[in-house]
Specification:
The chain is mostly beta strands. The chain has two helices and 25 strands. It binds fe (ii) ion (FE2).
Length: 361
Amino acid sequence: MRSWIHHAKGRTVRQARVGMGDLTEEHVGRQGFFGPIALIYRTHAPNEVIRVEGTLAPRLAADTSRAEPSDMTDPRGHPEIMLSNADVSVAVSRRAAAMPYAYRNTDGDLLYFVHKGTGIFATEMGRIAYEPGDYVLIPKGITFSLMPAPGDSHMLVVESPSPISLTEHKQTGRYMPVDPTVLVLPEICDYGFPTQSEYELRVKHGGAHSSIYYRNSLLNSVGWKGDLFPYKLNIRDIIPISSDRIHVPPAAWCTFDGGGFAVITFVPQMAVSDLNAEELPGYHRNVDNDESVFVHSDTAGGGRPGYLSHTPQAILHGADEATRRAHQARRVPGSQRTFCGVSVDTDKPLVDSTAFLRLAR
Ligand SMILES: [Fe+2]
């Protein structure tokens, strides 16, 4: 049962994350950043790992720009799963050629995040052109064909048997951090596909694929209406919920959520102005959540674009003590922080795939 009564013993700071002096602060939290917390203060760094014995890896990071999913070379290929549990999977797609069929996933929703590349999602409700920084949500059962333009279409693919929805942020109203009218909906068009004697529908069902052949194309339609539709959202249209005073916990940056997981977007934001307050994410242990972070870009050079990291629940992480102190000493209030990325945080532990482990450092 949650208690709002907080207690303090020994040396602490008056306000969390402000005026730390010689102390380090470790945040232990339940239920993401929403549940009961403990802030533990020390005069030494708590995250200097010397050795690990056993199978629990504190944090692994895989260079997905070296991933070679089968859709990279085979038009009938698929994304490669990197991390997964019963609620969600995170895969990498690098599709080089158009799907030679219409595709329908009856196992769940698909949420693409475009790291690199351009092209078209040709859906049965019209076309959606994509570019880097786009989320493209294809609801369960909606038929589409992915048609990349020449080049590397490097995407993350989040798949969930439960519906993936835009996160409600009740304290910031209806148009923060996403004004729903910035969503780009599919536009009905004439795809101009050549006439064929039969049209293949490739269906994913129960984890397996089957093909059903139809007399008419399933992608050609002349109109649609309703509240079930694919759409895209570019991360440049996400307004960061930030504070001029202090780093805001990433719970404020949830963009989508589904059953057992949340998708969080890190977008560029202004550096905080209170030089007494901590700016970088501090040491934290989210004991109820696994965390995966994909680096989309970081013009300041801190993050490694294309890397996907996995931190199991209860593993301490955050900027190390030397990095934190160096950053505090040189930071400039009002400057632009450039890190841009996508995080999938899950309630159930994530399993590292063989491909992920092969690409991990
Ligand atoms: Fe974290």
